[in-house]
Hints:
The protein is mostly beta strands. The chain has a domain at 39-125: Immunoglobulin-like, CATH 2.60.40. It is built from 5 helices and 48 strands. A hairpin with a 2-residue loop joins strand 35 and strand 36 (629-645). It is globular, with a radius of gyration of 28 Å.
Amino acid sequence: MLAIQLPLNIPFSENNVLSLAKSLLFAFLIISSVAISQTATISGIVLDENNNPISDVNITCKNAGTTTNANGTYILQIIADVENTITFSHIGHKNIILQKIILTTNETFEFNPVMSTGAIQIAEIIVSPSGTKNVEGIVTIPPELVRKIPGANAGVENILKLLPGVSFNNELSTQYNVRGGNFDENLVYVNGIEVYRPFLIRSAQQEGLSFVNSNLVENLKFSAGGFQAKYGDKLSSVLDINYKTPTSFSLQVAGSLLGANTTLETVSKDNNFTSLTGFRYRDNSIFINSQQTRTNVNPTFIDAQSYLTYRFSDRFRLNFLGNFAINNYKNKPLNRQTNFGTIAEPRALLVFYEGQESNRYQTEFGALKADFVLNEKTKLDFTASVYHTVEEEFSDIIARYELGDVDTNLGGENLGEATNSRGIGAQQNRARNILDALILNIAHGGNFKKEKSSLEWGVKFTHEDFRDQLRESEFIDSAGFFIRPSEPRFINNQPSEPFEEDIVSFESARATNFVKTNRISGFLQYSDQKTWGNNKIYYNLGLRAQHYTINPEESSSNNQFIFSPRAQFAIKPDWQKDMLFRLAIGSYQQPPFYRELRAVNGQVNANVEAQKSQHYVLGNEYSFNFSNRPFTIISEVYYKNLTNVNTYTIEDVRLRYAANNNAEAFAYGFDFRLNGAFVPGAESWLSLGYLRTEENINNRGYISRPTDQRFKFGLLFQDYMPTIPNLKLYLNIVYNTGVPGGSPNNADPYQFQNRLRDYRRADLGISYIFADTENTHPKSHWLHRFKEFSMGFEIFNLFNNQNSITNTWVRDADTQRQFAVPNFLTSRILNLKFNLRI
């Protein structure tokens, strides 16, 4: 993917590029109203009860049909946008009948049936435009959609931010908030193994790559609340991802100035060994250079992942998941000018920098998982994993800043430049932070299925070892005076009276912490499906428990036992309309991780207890046809009651906890998503969300939490040109209202409830598909060797909105007024990309 920052040194101007993009978008929207008949594809691998692939399975659908090859794989084209019934048949095995499957035009759906001996079996799967209708309240997102939708940090998290209830206002970050929770309240699993993020990263431009490599993903599930007991002890959400098991050799490559990635899939001749390996490289320079701070920056992010599987027998399989990542971020800022204020009183902030910062985050992760199939009803697994991270933050930055007026003379040579600037101060930031963390996990899980009921259980032991050195300080010289901390000994009557107290940093943290934690957790849950008259009923009852002990080196240990019952209930009434109703109630408790134990001054409070949240979620899913196209409306209302809350502040992506349990809070809201084929053959959705979350600290009354993002709008839109169906358009639009945070550091939140500006962003991508599963070529054609080949371009921040995630606060030397100067995020960027797979 080649990337070039606008404006370009080519004959057409930035306005022309924008006009062209708008015209293309308008043309696509007009042309898309013309419906044309298309097909969809269903593919997968057919296995027997012992997980062996079955060859020569007959697969039929109306007048279409195919058979599986020697590896058990198949590809079948069916008519799109109508109900289909697909039959899998093989001598000596039950027939599998897949009923009521509706796929949109050009959609690819993966179905991997397991055939057993005996009578005919009917797969009770109803597939809607968004995939399987899930009674568990978990959103299923097609992996191909993740890989196609444009974004400054494209991937799984980019798609999540288009869902209702999920938000964040920084396009370079892979962090996200869910229904009023913060980044630390989200669970992420890959192949059933919990994964972790680096701890010290404080700026989104330092993040680089997400742990999840979207090119390796086979399926993706997400729950924004009310999830089952089998998932862990976090307060907000769960992202459950499975990496795929290759069925044939494949090599995929994509490259650009933004980065490069390659994915290799291999299968042994006997089909017992498979490997899936991905390598990624990314450089965020063009995004950082589009901001208003001029800098010499060298950010490099490297990531390598492998998922290996070896089948020893029909009943025993061993899997390995490994990851190695290095994030190097070196930054030498030069200067900055930000114009702000009003039309009547425009102002400018000029900053001149000295010094540099050098941050390095290196992580290694490895997990070994053994799968046992005792019989057709019982499966067991055993997992051992280790996560290690070494994170270093070294910086010395001196910023001298001036506040001035802005030249508004339309005919002048200095239009927009700062004039009448006044020297008002300086700021020095220094950091010497080193964190070394080791996390070990040993886990066992099991699943017993009998007809439509299942019993699942699991137990896990976790050992955490954190070694942390924190050395950071900030000095501020404003309006000719050093600003000291807000402490009684620094209160003075200067300049009327002399003040001779020592000059100390305005903010500082100095600590050395050694903390070890041992956790034993487990769950047990039972689910079943029944009929009540002609109505179908599903329920799940489960409970989780955890006992943990925190052992800091310089204070007494603390231990706590938590118990979390959870339940989900769903009913599909025997109505003419295709509707499903869901109810989820549960207790969710989050024991403190290391970052939640560390207060703002760096000291560890081992007495911090688990935060608690009660979830109440009521949902509805309604599927229907409109203009002969399938649509689904998913809506949920929710309420969360939180106690033992550990309050925190957010600055960019850095969370700093108070390390206590002195607050209570609540969150409630409404989520709505309309999903379907707005144009034939292209899945799209529109989402709306409303959220209100407040906290009461030390019984001082309720105020907005840092994540109180009231209104959310998201649009994911796909289109194509009917006369050129291989020319595809992808568009995502996000609008979020501003969150609290527009106040100075250390400000009392009860006195400052200012909000940041609203977040508005649109990303557009247009690609031409030369080859894919729908576009194959004869052997004589040069494209025959490619399974996939596409080229195109993307425009990030299409309308060049000036978004901000933080403010810089400066004081006018004349008036002593403080001004909130927004720190703007990335501007419009043009990106050229290509992707091929053989």
